[in-house]
Write a structure and sequence with these properties.
The complex is a heterodimer. By secondary structure, chain A is α/β, with parallel strands linked by helices. Chain A has 10 helices and 9 strands. Chain B has one domain: Metal-dependent hydrolases (TIM Barrel). Chain B has 11 helices and 8 strands. The mean pLDDT of chain B is 97. The chains are: A alpha/beta, B alpha/beta.
Chain lengths: 252, 264
């Protein structure tokens, strides 16, 4: 088969508090790296939305990606109760106006530090669910029980779990069985031959390519899929089709 | 076609010498390892073009070094062209250390010693390890140590001065990014210290940084297979923004030099 044309569900750019050696932060460098690794499109959020304020970072994002049609905005959201962020109905209006079709959030204690429980985020999750908007959530931002509650309470909310790791089969398998709306990003899922196992047990439809650039290595992420012992069709599903399908289902 | 082009097409690098310096074998308590046998590992090696793996058993870095070393002996004896062994010892059983080192290193295909101080609740420079350091020094053996954090790096700095003929491999290059910086500094000051690249949190630009700071001759390819899938750590070397000659050093030529004379 020819080179896979990856659609990345998890990229960012912008200045960060911690910048590791030989890493990068500018959008133009992200574009160069994507080209080097064969990543044709990406959902991107702005680091300022994570590390400073969603309202500020989301504005900077829209401004800086204007000239790159293959960079697709991924807004960072949070609950509205403090008025730091719009109410869900207003958020949806804004997303429609700007053509934003996916969101991420950082509720973890080291980031935006709020509870993901229903009493705090229920209205937000309901709005995302109603409009088919995928939520991209780092595993580092949550707990297994929170995930279970979120998926139980919102069975139509498509959840892409990113920043996963190689130690999660004993919990993720049962969640895959229970919830069809759960997907995982491939980057951190470094179980040996684990991609093949997931494809065999649950189908390639549950895996979505993501790199985590610029913090994490794009080359490591693409190699995992390029060398997978699965069919070309399954590789294409993971590389771009599954994400295309989820984005295509958004109703704004 | 460059190495990077071949990775984009998922082609094995089977014309390049690739020696994976950091592997395991067998099951592990904390998570599912669905493919853990020697045969399972051969499947992954062939897919990428890895010629040889250097293994220490999960059981050995865990509770039972003898049980684990026996698994390694079995793999090395059944696949002598593909599997090389590290003998793993546990400092909590010092009375048996010399015997176990001798028992395993007498077997063709055993190329060095593996220490996992963290799993064995020990400091890197625990005096109970001295028999291992002395033997490595005497026989110019590679000694692969799980290194995580600045204190571990400092210990290797001291030990590599005390045992100048032993060949210290700092597993995970120090583990966290701050410790990696210190590890590269030690590599630049000590002729007998190397870093391997194995890590699960694979940071963008990491390989380029290692080569810029320490050159390509002291950086070793490793994957932790089957603890981790080898493909990500393979891809980050093959597609790194360094020359193909530097990649060849990392992939196999450096480790080949380290084990020369050990395999009959």
């Amino acid at each position: 088969m020819g080179d896979l044309e990856f659609f990345d569900c998890n990229c960012s750019f912008g200045m960060r508090s911690i910048l590791y050696p030989e890493s990068f932060y500018k959008v133009e460098d992200l574009v160069k790296k994507m080209d080097r690794y064969g990543i044709k499109r990406a959902l991107v959020y702005h680091s300022m939305a994570r590390e400073y304020a969603p309202s500020v970072g989301n504005r900077m994002l829209m401004d800086e990606i204007k000239v790159y049609p293959f960079l697709i905005p991924l807004w960072t959201v949070m609950p509205h109760h403090t008025q730091e962020f719009p109410e869900p109905y207003r958020l949806i209006e804004q997303m429609k106006a700007y053509g934003v079709k996916a969101v991420t959030m950082f509720p973890g204690a080291m980031d935006h530090a709020y509870s993901m429980a229903e009493w705090n985020c229920g209205q937000l999750f309901e709005a995302l669910e109603e409009h088919g908007i995928p939520l991209i959530l780092g595993f580092d931002q949550t707990t297994w029980n929170e995930l279970y509650d979120l998926l139980s309470n919102h069975p139509k909310l498509n959840l892409i779990l990113t920043n996963v790791n190689y130690r999660m089969d004993r919990n993720i398998y049962v969640l895959f069985r229970m919830f069809e709306n759960l997907f995982i990003e491939t980057r951190g899922y470094q179980v040996y031959q684990g991609i093949e196992q997931i494809c065999n047990r649950f189908g390639a439809c549950r895996l979505i390519f993501g790199s985590g650039m610029p913090v994490y290595s794009g080359s490591a992420a693409v190699a995992m899929i390029n060398y997978a012992r699965i069919s070309d069709k399954e590789k294409e599903m993971i590389a771009y089709r599954n994400l295309e399908t989820l984005i295509g289902e958004v109703k704004l | 076609m460059t190495m990077a082009d071949r990775v984009r097409k998922g082609l094995p690098l089977d014309d390049i010498l690739i020696i994976d310096c950091h592997n395991h074998i067998g099951l592990w308590k904390a998570f599912n390892v669905p493919y853990s046998s020697a045969e399972d590992m051969l499947m992954g090696m062939d897919r990428l073009g890895i010629d040889k793996v250097c293994v220490a058993a999960h059981a050995s870095i865990g509770p039972n070094y003898r049980y684990g070393n026996d698994i390694v002996i079995d793999a090395v004896e059944r696949y002598p062209d593909r599997f090389l062994g590290y003998v793993t010892v546990n400092p909590n059983y010092p009375e048996d250390m010399e015997n176990e080192l001798k028992r395993c290193l007498a077997i063709n295909g055993f190329i060095g010693i593996k220490l996992h101080p963290e799993c064995h609740g020990s400091a890197v420079d625990n005096i109970n390890y001295n028999a291992a350091f002395e033997l490595a020094n005497e026989e110019k053996l590679p000694i692969l140590i799980h290194i995580w954090g600045g204190e571990d790096v400092k210990a290797v700095d001291r030990l590599s001065g005390m045992y100048p003929d032993a060949r210290f491999i700092m597993g995970h290059a120090g583990g966290d990014v701050k410790a990696m910086g210190h590890a590269l500094d030690v590599v630049n000051r000590r002729d007998n210290v190397y870093v391997d690249i194995v890590i699960s949190r694979i940071y963008e630009g990491n390989i380029e940084w290692f080569v810029r700071e320490a050159g390509s001759k002291r950086v070793l390819f490793g994957t932790d297979m089957p603890f981790l899938d080898p493909r990500p750590n393979f891809g980050r070397v093959a597609m790194a923004d360094i020359s193909d000659e530097e990649k060849k050093d990392i992939f196999g030529l450096n480790m080949k030099r380290l084990i020369e004379g050990r395999v009959r």
